Structures are given as structure tokens and as C-alpha cells.
Amino acid sequence: PSVYSDRTIGYAFLYYAKDEPRNSFSFRWKNSRAFLYGAQVGWIQPDRIMAPEVSSEAEFLRDLARTRSHARPFVTDGQFLRLLDVAGDNTLLRGRGTGVFGPDYTIEEPAVNASAWLADGKPGVLLSNISSQDRSVKVPLPLDDAGIPAGTSLTASVFGPGGEITRETMSSDTLALTVPAGKALVVHIRPAGPS
Question: Full-prediction pTM beyond 0.85?
């Protein structure tokens, strides 16, 4: 990782245990983590994800992939910086994962997680909400990594699966936003002014 961190992501899960995607919590947790680390999502056998009883998980995966398309500058040509501490309405969730080569295991995960990225000198944030409730959270922005001084006027463009949701001008190093239930967001940050 110290050599190739801006060229490859060394992160994986065993896709998928026998009870996934029916085990919604484990399925969402794995795919959310893959999204946050910049991995390509959707590595699942079509008959498993297209089964009528898992339509909500198919929608989750589809929306995650669509949102990831707005993170392309970061996840294909950028640099993963770190996971971020997300504050606010960010309940710790508990669930179970099915072991394939060992026993089942407990998963404890905040409802919303975020990762910081840098591309072309501009910071970005990827967020994912694996819960079934909208979550109003606050996420620190990786401004220092981009050499952006505190108090600089910024434009934060927030993208969801359908494209840009909102654009706001701010001068804080923390962004407050609501992450919809079972959705992901991508935030592009740049100094305010002409694009």
C-alpha cells in the first residue's frame, strides 16, 4: 500500500456467503465498504441478485454503482486518504455475517461511513448509509490534504445515484448533510469561484 496506494486498492471480501444477499445487513456492509475503498461493486451471480425476494438489495447495489460513477475522478485516478469519523445521527448497528471457512461472526458498524479522497489536488468524500433510515450527519472534510487553508470559501457538490443533488458554498471544514436510507453520496469539494 505504501507504494501503490494511488494506483490500486488492496481490499476484498469473500463474495458472497450462502445467505447473501438475503442477509441484508452483511450484504450492504460488504458492498458499502467496497464502495468506500473505491472497489468496483457488483461482483455477484446474476441469479442471486435478480431473485424477487432480494429486490431491495438489488436496488441498493444498483444505486451504489450509479453513485460510484460520480466518484470516478477519485477512485480511478485519485488517491485514497483514509476513513473518516462521521458524527451526528450515526447509530452503531449490529448484525451477523456467515462464515464460509469458519464460524459466523458479529458485525458492528456505524450506519454511515465515509472515506476521504484526493484527485487533481481537489478533495472528495464518499459516504454510504447501510441503515433503513435517513441519517443527518457531519463529516470532516480533508482540506489539509489538498492544501486548502481553514476558512477558505468552498463549493461542495453532492452527488447521488441520479446525479448532482445539491451544491452549496461554505467555509467550514465540516459538512453537514443527510444521507438517505440505504444510499451513498459523493461530495466534490473545490475552492468557490469559477468552475
Answer: yes
Scanning the structure block, which residue is given the C-alpha cell 461554505?
Answer: 170
**Nearest of 117, 79, 116, 85 to residue 1 by alpha carbon:** 79
Q: Which residues of 97-134 are buried (b: 16+ CB within 10 A; e: fewer)?
A: beeeeeeeeebebbbbbbbbbbbeebbbbbbbbbbeee
What's the pLDDT tens digit per position in 59-71?
Answer: 999 999 999 999 9
Q: What percent of the chain has pLDDT over 70?
A: 89
pLDDT above 80 (res 11): no
Locate 3 and state its grid cell.
Answer: 507504494
- 122 beta partners: 119
How many Å separate Cα 132 from the centre of its chain?
Answer: 16
Q: Please compute, for residue 9, the number of CA atoms within 13 A of its CA located in the half-sphere on the CB side.
A: 22
What kind and span of H or E run contains 122? Answer: strand 122-129
Phi, psi of 25, rounded to the nearest 5 degrees: -60, -50
Compute the Cα dihedral for 44, 50, 181, 110 and give only its sign. negative
Task: Pull the grid cell for residue 40.
Answer: 468496483
Q: Distance (Å, rounded) from C-alpha 44 to C-alpha 61?
A: 10
